[in-house]
Write a structure and sequence with these properties.
Number of helices: 4
Strand content: 25-35%
Order of helices and strands: EHEHEEEHEEEEH
Structural class: alpha/beta
Largest sheet: 6 strands, mixed
Shape: globular
Strand order of the largest sheet: 4-3-2-5-6-7
Number of strands: 9
Length: 180
């Protein structure tokens, strides 16, 4: 797929993403050898990352999903987290890994980890595709990080702006004129 005209540059290409997701899958396989894992994907951004990651984990993997909102159609997080769709199952005693596309302010991830921890999982981890190097208002330490990046507005591989660009097979920087 050629580069979208709305993307100024490609930050992480298809091959680079594929290799890094495979590495994270191997790390998770090693950490949870012989144990069941529940991946909780945060919709909609993490859907592609979670699908690819699950295929790289050698073991018993189950899925569930949550939808939360802290952005709406804005380019920056509002700092207010709303649960749009909760998980469908009891997670008591389970090994849970929250799968997210981006950690920037840390608000959403801190909220989700606390919210899910209250339900009594055996363990709770975080796998994030991108961790933005910004002055986080709330520090969050993911267990698995795909890539570190700056504070650019990124799209592709599940990341969007107003619902568009999720299908791009790479992660690129969105031209500011699109969202200005």
């Amino acid at each position: 797929m050629k580069k979208s005209p709305d993307v100024t540059s490609i930050l992480f290409g298809e091959d680079e993403i594929r290799e890094r997701v495979a590495e994270i899958g191997s790390q998770i396989t090693e950490r949870y050898k012989g144990e069941n894992i529940l991946l909780i994907g945060i919709l909609k951004g993490a859907c592609i990352f979670m699908s690819d990651l699950a295929r790289q984990i050698d073991g018993n993997v189950e899925f569930d999903f949550m939808a939360v909102s802290s952005y709406g159609i804005e380019a920056k997080s509002s700092g207010v987290v709303r649960i749009i769709k909760d998980i469908d199952r009891d997670i008591q005693g389970m090994n849970v890994i929250i799968v997210e596309d981006v950690i920037d302010s840390g608000f959403t991830m801190k909220f989700l980890k606390k919210y899910l921890k209250a339900r009594g999982p055996k363990s709770i981890g975080i796998a994030v595709l991108l961790r933005k190097n910004v002055e986080q208002q709330i520090p969050v330490k993911p267990d698995y990080v795909g890539f570190e990046c700056g504070d650019e507005f990124l799209v592709g591989y599940g990341l969007d702006y107003a619902g568009r660009y999720r299908n791009l097979p790479y992660i690129g920087i969105l031209d500011p004129k699109v969202y200005a």
